Amino acid sequence: MAQELNALRDKIDAVDKQLLDLLAARLALVGEVGEVKSRHGLPIYAPDREASMLARRREEAERLGVPGDLIEDVLRRVMRESYILESTSDKEHHFKCMKPDLGKVVIIGGQGQLGRLFGNLFSLSGYRVETLEQADWPRADDILADAGLVMVAVPIDVTCQVIDRLGKLPADCLLVDVTSVKAAPLEHMLAVHKGPVLGLHPMFGPDVASLAKQVIVCCQGRDGAASQWLLDQMTIWGARLQQVEAKAHDEAMTLIQALRHFATFAYGWHLSREGADLERLLNLSSPIYRLELAMVGRLFAQDPELYADIILSSPQNLAMVRRYFERFGEGLHLLEQGDRVGFIAAFRQVSDFFGPHADQFLKESRLLLAQANDRRHYG
């Protein structure tokens, strides 16, 4: 039996080596594709091309008796690596520059994580980038004098104060911010600068390897035509842009960020106060609980000041957390009353609210859970 298994395993190893050679060849071709896209100013992420290619590969795989989900999983992982490769070329100017005549790009807070990310992207696109840090304010007028774009990338709690410190900018300079609150920064930018103004909210952390498929929310302030080049530039970087009014953005963020972060914080705080044995929880967990626990732990591996600023950024956030607390209490009351019928009725009400999204989320979560389970190792 051992000899028979070893012989088959040797054959599998040989096939795996062929797969590695093919993957290396594919990534080499991706590098060439990136060069062509760079010359012609094409986005690194082409959704129509991706969707049609995956559909064809699924059909071809199923004709060969290979599950379509398998080849799609493999190709999506390969494509993610491909997007990273297209974003990290050794070329000095990797992305096409959409506004070659722009004055320099000044990033206030450019030494922070998010500021460095955008500074690198602008540099890879051929723009001259400078930073303005706290110690540089005595020279701020000189640094900002010939700026074509000024980006404010500082913590939420000081964003408006920093904007208010800006002196007179060039009339055609584009002033933008990248904080997670939009209404107040936009108001302050419009007050201090008479030129074009744009509010941005990158819906990702500064540790992303590529902007492919990453969402950037855009809130127009003044003279949208003057900021179109920046929208085009971010699209070339691979970002997906979502245009929304500042007020609507801030209302949505109370749920997407403030409430979600607070609920995660509260659960992690509860685990710590209960003295939960994390290793035991992991050993006994289902894939879905392990994934949920990973998302909780992820929060506490990051900067607490950032999350405090996000949650405390507006009274609306606190009001939303209060309503969540009250509804949590309503749910607890059903349990304390042993109201099984009431619980089921409430469950069905929420199920109706989610509608067809529930089935879509079920499908997406199955893929995530399978991937999480694949990474488990029992040594």
UniProtKB/TrEMBL annotation:
Domain Prephenate/arogenate dehydrogenase positions: 103-365
Domain Chorismate mutase residues, every copy: 1-90
InterPro entries per record: 6-PGluconate_DH-like_C_sf, Chor_mut/prephenate_DH_T, Chorismate_II_sf, CM_dom_sf, CM_II_prokaryot, CM_T, NAD(P)-bd_dom_sf, PDH_C
Alphabetical UniProt keywords: Amino-acid biosynthesis, Aromatic amino acid biosynthesis, Cytoplasm, Isomerase, NAD, Oxidoreductase, Tyrosine biosynthesis
UniProt entry tagged with the keyword Isomerase: yes
Localization: Cytoplasm
Pathway where it operates: Amino-acid biosynthesis; L-tyrosine biosynthesis; (4-hydroxyphenyl)pyruvate from prephenate (NAD(+) route): step 1/1; Metabolic intermediate biosynthesis; prephenate biosynthesis; prephenate from chorismate: step 1/1
GO molecular function: chorismate mutase activity; prephenate dehydrogenase (NAD+) activity
PANTHER family membership: PREPHENATE DEHYDROGENASE, PREPHENATE DEHYDROGENASE [NADP(+)]
NCBIfam families: CM_T (TIGR01799), PRK11199.1 (NF008400)
The name this protein goes by in its record: T-protein
